[in-house]
């Protein structure tokens, strides 16, 4: 079974890990210049560095659909710089998963594959996809929705360690991002994690810097640029999150059920 995952950020990477470990072949697509914050757990970094590894799985940049298929034979997840999903007709996958997390549909169609899954808000099961997987933290996280859509985006991050919006660091100005601290750094409230045009981006609470934009990234004022984990577990910076794996489990369930695999096993 072959699945194309649109997007290669941290949630998409969690989805890829779940599918890959269930022996489902995965090809991922991403924009040409990814702006991932949790870069240590994003397969999108294969676009930036040529190759990356998350937990025990390696991803590598592919230039063409043919090269992507060859990488699969070597046990490597291919990542294509292909934000429009132009590779989908060539690959003819069994399933397409839209995990771009744009809060709206950027072009995925229910006719793209025999099974099409939308991740998060912006999709309607039965219209532009066959099922939707919930991404909102809470009771319904990771559940498969076969009618309607996910809970609308609130704009407020979910609670981690008792903190929500305070966890997020935002660019203090328009300009070019100058990174001062690395992912995994232990920080205190008030520490300067980065600057933009000389203006400081201060840490908003004590914890571990779980994610931060890369040096030289163009930003606008208020853009999400960092993430602090108040649980202070450095190892969390280097493995997929509970949320990513929960969403990945929902996608795995939907792909198997809608492709008929689960039905055949009953």
Q: What does this protein look like?
A:
The protein has a nine-stranded mixed beta sheet, with helices on both faces. The two termini are 19 Å apart. It folds into two domains: 2-153 and 242-265, Rossmann fold; 165-230, RNA polymerase II/Efflux pump adaptor protein, barrel-sandwich hybrid domain (OB fold (Dihydrolipoamide Acetyltransferase, E2P)), CATH 2.40.50. Strand 1 (2-6), helix 1 and strand 2 (25-30) form a beta-alpha-beta unit. The protein is built from six helices and 17 strands. It has helices at 10-21, 45-49, 65-73, 88-91, 242-259, 261-265; strands at residues 2-6, 25-30, 51-54, 57-62, 77-81, 95-98, 115-119, 131-133, 144-145, 168-170, 175-179, 186-187, 192-196, 199-202, 207-212, 218-219, 224-229. It has 266 residues and is an alpha/beta fold.
Question: Number of domains in the coordinates?
Answer: 2
Can you give the helix content as a percent range?
A: 10-25%
- The radius of gyration over CA amounts to 18 Å
Cα end-to-end separation: 19 Å
Share in β-strands: 25-35%
Q: Major sheet, described briefly? A: 9 strands, mixed
Enter the CATH topology name of the largest domain. Rossmann fold
Secondary-structure class = alpha/beta
Mean pLDDT: 93
Order of helices and strands: EHEHEEHEHEEEEEEEEEEEEHH
Low-confidence stretches: none
CATH architecture of the largest domain: 3-Layer(aba) Sandwich
Instruction: Name the overall outline.
Output: globular
Number of strands: 17
